[in-house]
Write a sequence for this structure.
């Protein structure tokens, strides 16, 4: 979830790693809540951030997935179930992606951003 399939290990294994560069990316992001909020909004609505700034996209996607799985497991589980029920190979439009996320996790991007940043700071 929240990870473009092409963003994988260069050795062809298909596995991604939490590289030191991404840890550095989070260190920078943690100082800029507006950038975290913008990245969250972008990831929820589309996969474009993976093309534009893959380090930021992966760092925020990993953080969001970790936060939801550990701090909000019920809404995260509902999000995964709903995602699994979508028809395969059908484009998921930006507005539909946002509504899908909003229904299960909520819409207050400011609160989500603050909670995500606090969660990531607690992992240090």
């Amino acid at each position: 979830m929240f990870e473009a399939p092409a963003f994988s290990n260069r050795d062809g294994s298909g596995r991604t790693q939490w590289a030191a560069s991404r840890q550095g990316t989070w260190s920078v992001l943690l100082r800029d809540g507006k950038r975290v909020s913008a990245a969250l909004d972008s990831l929820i609505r589309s996969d474009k951030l993976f093309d534009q700034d893959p380090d930021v996209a992966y760092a925020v996607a990993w953080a969001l997935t970790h936060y939801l799985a550990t701090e909000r497991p019920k809404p995260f589980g509902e999000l995964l179930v709903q995602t699994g029920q979508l028809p395969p190979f059908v484009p998921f439009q930006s507005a539909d992606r946002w509504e899908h996320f909003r229904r299960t996790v909520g819409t207050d991007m400011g609160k989500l951003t603050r909670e995500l940043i606090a969660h990531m700071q607690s992992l240090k």
Observations:
- Confidence is low (pLDDT under 50) at residues 3-8.
- Helices lie at 20-29, 33-45, 48-52, 54-71, 73-84, 94-105, 109-122.
- The chain has seven helices and no strands.
